[in-house]
Design brief:
This is DegV family protein. By secondary structure, this protein is of the alpha/beta class. 39% of the residues lie in helices and 22% in strands. The relative contact order is 0.15.
Length: 285
């Protein structure tokens, strides 16, 4: 069975990265001031100067792809593949999952599209997509084999985000406003480990002060031998980036740097950074 993998733009995938693979992705939507609606692509962000608007405290939110867009994407992929596996942005971040389940249950797609529920986030999903693409080379694998892989990644990967703008995070409804208001008064940074039930990893006056707690959480989930990815936006201050680099270099830890997908910046500010980790044994070869 020839399988195609569908993600969305919250995964950090790019056109260059998926070229020649069985992976495709559907862009989410970006909304500015409740009026301007455009696709979550690099070209559109440059055109609308999204990151500057966020930095200037402008109203920038996200929206899921429409059922019509999803129908069109499924139809397009089913011309190439026998079956499509769809991993959307997690259901506690967006209604995209519920929309995908609804569309996949239509008679046209029933038995041809499988939507997996998961609580993975950001660039971890990109790495999972690459692993699942490798799996598609074995056409004897079943949908259940892919589901098992997702479950393993859920246990052996870790996504920790440190929001840069607690006002923005609270206004978007993705955090408890009472807790956020307290943290604002204390001028406190908070590290949040994403999952089905997001949990606080630690609080501190600076991002650097949270580093030890972040590393502890990473190792307890992804293990000591993991791929660590430090993510930030194109508008994150060089000062903050250098502080984190210096801290990681002090303890001689190996890491890579990537851009955090724009939906996270839209909802948590340009100074939002993340630490993503995956057990190296799970990665695509």
């Amino acid at each position: 069975m020839k399988i195609g993998i569908l993600m969305d733009s919250s995964s950090g995938l790019t056109d260059e990265l998926i070229k020649g693979t069985n992976i495709s992705y559907i862009p989410l939507h970006i909304i500015i001031n409740g009026e301007i609606d455009f696709l979550d692509t690099k070209k559109e962000h440059e055109k609308h100067d999204t990151y500057k608007i966020i930095a200037d405290k402008g109203a920038v939110t996200t929206s899921q792809a429409s059922p019509g867009e999803l129908i069109e994407k499924y139809q397009e992929m089913l011309e190439k593949y026998d079956h499509v596996i769809h991993l959307s942005i997690s259901p506690n971040l967006s209604g995209m999952y519920q929309t995908a389940v609804m569309v996949s249950n239509d008679d046209e797609f029933k038995g041809k599209v499988t939507v997996f529920e998961h609580y993975l986030a950001a660039n971890v999903l990109k790495e999972l997509a690459l692993k699942m693409n490798q799996m598609t080379q074995n056409e004897n694998l079943t949908i259940e084999d892919y589901k098992k892989e997702v479950n393993i990644w859920s246990k052996k990967s870790c996504s920790i985000v440190i929001p840069g703008d607690l006002d923005r995070l609270a206004s978007g409804g993705r955090a408890k406003s009472v807790l956020i208001s307290i943290l604002k008064m204390l001028k406190t940074k908070v590290a949040i480990q994403w999952g089905e039930k997001p949990k606080k990893v630690g609080m501190g006056r600076t991002v650097a002060s949270l580093y030890d707690k972040v590393v502890k959480a990473v190792k307890s989930t992804a293990g000591a031998d993991c791929k660590l990815i430090f993510v930030y936006s194109p508008a994150t201050s060089e000062k903050l980036i250098e502080q984190i680099r210096n801290k990681m270099n002090e303890v001689n830890i190996s890491y890579t740097e990537e851009q955090i997908p724009s939906p996270f910046t839209c909802h948590a500010g340009v100074e939002t950074v993340g630490f993503l980790a995956i057990d190296k044994k799970l990665l695509a070869k």
